[in-house]
Write a structure and sequence with these properties.
Blueprint: H1 2-8, H2 19-23, E1 26-29, E2 34-37, E3 43-48, H3 53-62, E4 67-71, H4 74-82, H5 89-99, H6 104-120, E5 124-127
Antiparallel strand pairs: 1-5, 2-3, 3-4
Helix pairs in contact: 5-6
Amino acid sequence: MLNRILYTLKLKKRPDVDRTRIMKSFPVRNQLINWEIDDKGEASLVIPQKDKLWIRLAGKFFMLPDKRVIVLDSIGTYVWKMCDGKHTISQIVKSVQNQYQLTRKEAETSLFTFMQQLGKRNFIQFAIPEQNAPATLEPEPQKPRLFGFLQKR
């Protein structure tokens, strides 16, 4: 929250992320969003309303629903399914390019715009691997550790 304010007031500069790191990042869906595929093959995202006092009061006064439903088209559904944390953005670009017979530039431009919109609305987050780390999401198994004076050396 503090960083967002500092970025808005331009008191702090956003970290620069180069294109190669973006292409190696893993988009991950928000776990609070429920989704299902309908009979047309389109994904319906069910977004819960924020649980704040003023939103609840306005909801009762104006009879607002407690959730929103967003329906994605076929390409959006295809990309949404691939945002599982196992595929990098470059893999998704190649897959969209092959599936819908697009050029690399068309697929990349439209995918970046779509991912940017999903990211702004907090529907997805991006796991960017560290520069020296390999591009895998599998954590290393941790060894059991003993505490205090029982620690082995």
